[in-house]
Amino acid sequence: MSNLTGLNTAAGPNPNKSFEVVQPPTDSVSSLSFSPKGNYLVATSWDNQVRCWEIARTGPTVASMPKASTSHDQPVLCSAWKDDGTTVFSGGCDKQVKMWPLMSGGQPVTVAMHDAPVKEVAWIPEMNLLVTGSWDKTLRYWDTRQSTPVHTQQLPDRCYALTVRHPLMVVGTADRNLIVFNLQNPQTEFKRITSPLKYQTRCVAAFPDQQGFLVGSIEGRVGVHHLDDAQQSKNFTFKFHREGSEIYSVNSLNFHPIHHTFATAGSDGAFNFWDKDSKQRLKAMSRCPQPIPCSTFNNDGSIFAYSVCYDWSKGAENHNPATAKTYIFLHLPQESEVKGKPRIGTSGRK
């Protein structure tokens, strides 16, 4: 362990020379969400807080200014923006989802409840509904003007991950279940798949064209899965976020909003950019000294936000409050890092 500490000190917390967000949370970050309408970044944290910063980009530099914050009674696990960029939804260990009219300066109100912590939340603009996934093994759809869910969908196990690209929604649960929904018929499972990965699902991301999804697991592996049976030959898995015999979790998968390449981030402290169509890694960034539990692109893909902090994967006994500072960094992707490469026959290697 002493070697690792020495390495961390030498590398510093920011080996990629990203821009540091000011006044970060006091505990680990659980989710990051950019407004769909502007450069406002929201972070939820284990310190029970939901924070928002205004991010201002001027040429090659980026500045962050704290805008507002609100709190839950217990750690907050997830966040999502309404499509008009006015409102933030946040859910967590207090078993509720709050709707925060951030841009109008209003107070948060509780709009959804579960019987266990809320792990995932997403706004579905095409349906004008909020969807929430919980460790109580249910998925619930909410009209935010009503106190009871429009529909409760039983899941086979605890909800761990959720992704929506209407009409496609994919839910990852415990026991490696991946449940696919067609939101034009949201009360029926469209397809249930056992994850192509051998270990616990950590994250999912729907393809921008809604034809499939990515799934990431605790074993440093990503599966690329197409829904159409005729496209199954295009399915593959690949492994990374590994260092010798050490295997790290893939914590975050984000598609670039313009180029439709994707980013992965993991507990090894690395983030990478990939092109699934040519099966190539576009860019590998330097490893940070702590895990990256979450990440996200802004609405035009010009800013990639990622948090660097302890992810609790090695338990409380490996948490040292003296050294485990929480960071949120902003990386400005070069086009070469996120623009897909043309396919060259079958020789494209990852």
UniProtKB/TrEMBL annotation:
<dbReference type="GO" id="GO:0043130">
    <property type="term" value="F:ubiquitin binding"/>
</dbReference>
<feature type="repeat" description="WD">
    <location>
        <begin position="69"/>
        <end position="110"/>
    </location>
</feature>
<dbReference type="GO" id="GO:0005643">
    <property type="term" value="C:nuclear pore"/>
</dbReference>
<keyword id="KW-0853">WD repeat</keyword>
<dbReference type="InterPro" id="IPR001680">
    <property type="entry name" value="WD40_rpt"/>
</dbReference>
<dbReference type="Pfam" id="PF00400">
    <property type="entry name" value="WD40"/>
</dbReference>
<dbReference type="InterPro" id="IPR015943">
    <property type="entry name" value="WD40/YVTN_repeat-like_dom_sf"/>
</dbReference>
<protein>
    <submittedName>
        <fullName>Protein RAE1</fullName>
    </submittedName>
</protein>
<feature type="repeat" description="WD">
    <location>
        <begin position="111"/>
        <end position="152"/>
    </location>
</feature>
<dbReference type="GO" id="GO:0006405">
    <property type="term" value="P:RNA export from nucleus"/>
</dbReference>
<dbReference type="InterPro" id="IPR036322">
    <property type="entry name" value="WD40_repeat_dom_sf"/>
</dbReference>
<dbReference type="InterPro" id="IPR020472">
    <property type="entry name" value="WD40_PAC1"/>
</dbReference>
<feature type="repeat" description="WD">
    <location>
        <begin position="250"/>
        <end position="284"/>
    </location>
</feature>
<keyword id="KW-0677">Repeat</keyword>
<dbReference type="GO" id="GO:0003723">
    <property type="term" value="F:RNA binding"/>
</dbReference>
<feature type="repeat" description="WD">
    <location>
        <begin position="22"/>
        <end position="55"/>
    </location>
</feature>
<dbReference type="GO" id="GO:0000972">
    <property type="term" value="P:transcription-dependent tethering of RNA polymerase II gene DNA at nuclear periphery"/>
</dbReference>
<feature type="region of interest" description="Disordered">
    <location>
        <begin position="1"/>
        <end position="32"/>
    </location>
</feature>
